[in-house]
Amino acid sequence: MGEILNQLTQLFVQTIPTVILVFVLMVTLDRLLFRPLIAVLKQRQDASTGALERARQAAAAAEAKAREYEAAFQAARQEVYRQREAARREVLAERETILKQTRDEAEALVKSAQATLKAETEAAKQQLQATVSGLALEVTAAVLGDVTPGSPGGLGR
Fold first, then answer.
1. Are 155 and 149 in contact (CB under 8 A)?
2. The model's pTM
3. Rounded to whole angstroms, how far apart are CA atoms 62 and 56?
């Protein structure tokens, strides 16, 4: 057993430089290669994630702006429709007022024309009555002779 222990000790002593060399190599690789590589990969990951997050935020902001624009556009469209409807109502009311005035004027003209026609009709009737009386006397005189009251050959006898 002493011999085995002696061989193990000898092997252990022979492996110490290898272990130290592996340890130094591991520390050197860690400081010169792995740490900078991990730092670069982390920066790259952060940049990619940051860019993706900024892109998501930009997309969300653009979508919000699009919704805001659509809402403003819809509000403007509603305002135009409301103004158009108000203008239409105003024009209809004005047209109705003009039609009423025109009807009133037409009725006044018709009434005036009817009154004038009635007056002319009455005047024509009176003139016709006077003419009829005169013609009746003339016809009677022509047929019977002189029929004036108080004349010598007339009715007054």
1. yes
2. 0.42
3. 10
CA atoms within 13 A on the CB side of 75: 6
Residues present in the chain in total: 157
Separation of alpha carbons 87 and 69, rounded Å? 27
Taking only the tens of pLDDT, the chain with its 157 residues reads 889 989 889 988 899 999 999 999 999 999 999 999 999 999 988 888 888 888 999 999 999 999 999 999 999 999 999 999 999 999 999 999 999 999 999 999 999 999 999 999 999 999 988 888 888 888 888 888 765 555 555 454 4
DSSP string, 54-122: HHHHHHHHHHHHHHHHHHHHHHHHHHHHHHHHHHHHHHHHHHHHHHHHHHHHHHHHHHHHHHHHHHHHH
Q: How far apart are CA 135 and CA 140, in angstroms?
A: 8
Task: Return d(Cα 129, Cα 149) in angstroms, integer.
Answer: 20
Both structure tokens of 133: 């009386």
Is residue 75 a contact partner of residue 83, using CB atoms and an 8 Å limit? no
Largest CA distance in the chain: 205
